[in-house]
Specification:
It is a single chain. The protein is about 25% helix and about 25% strand. It is of the alpha/beta class. The strands form three sheets. A six-stranded mixed beta sheet has the order 10-9-8-11-13-12, with helices on both faces. Strands 1-2-3-5-4 form a five-stranded mixed barrel. Strands 6-7 form a two-stranded antiparallel ribbon. The chain is globular. The chain contains seven helices and 13 strands. The relative contact order is 0.12. About 5% of the residues have low confidence.
Amino acid sequence: MKGKIIRAVAGYYYVFDYEDGRTHQCRARGIFRKDGSKPLVGDEVLFDLTHTEDTEGTVDEILPRKNSLIRPPVANVDQALIVFALKDPEPNLSLLDRFLVLMKRQNIPAVIVFNKDDLDERDTFDGIARVYRDCGCQVLSMSIRTGEGVERVRHLFDNKTTVLAGPSGVGKSSLTNLLCPDAGMEVGEVSRQNRRGKQTTRHAELFPCGKDSFFFDTPGFSSLYLDEIRPQDLKMYFPEFEAYEPSCRFTGCLHLAEPDCGVKEAVRSGTISRERYDSYRKLYEELKEGRKR
């Protein structure tokens, strides 16, 4: 039978059966350990039940993946919904850029959603939205507390498998509960001491939210490492650079110390966001230093 792994806990894989809509608790066959592979949440699999009327079984085969992520360890993602808050906690745009690089590297389209729009007294969203729309992302705002913008976000999930990503305390679990009330996700508070969110999600889990629609809720991150990327390749994951690279004097320009750089000129003229360019430089130096260790 064909199904989809929706949760993995303590060596058990919980497989959603496409035919009857039930979830079966399965173990993976030993062959996966022998060839070094491991089923992931989101995998399409072939499985057998131990007995015809039993809800337990075995995962026999992992079907070909369209993509996979390492952190969180999930597979077959159609899009990423990257959730940040406009306030409480304040948006960490450096972390947002890391998420975008990671998704771009995996060819996963990203939509950025800022929650807590009702707390945005300084019109923070308008400025941030301009920056990230210029780099090719859809950017939306909502307030889970008031319901403003939630329906528009809900429609993004139609007929797709979506990964929810973002730091703790921004409302991912609350959004999960809105989309799938049966999920019963624990909702955390923001720490008064450092204004960071408290972690509530313990493992990646996939929830059905309509016909052919699933979404992951994943553990939040306070940092995200990109050490698998070569420093010279980082520019490929800042798509707003591409249009200005033909104006660079040198082929393979890194847009750092080189003279006559089309990208740096676009930054000076305001066509490319200074914040995004500074984020690129910071990430480049981080990757470069990491290679020396």
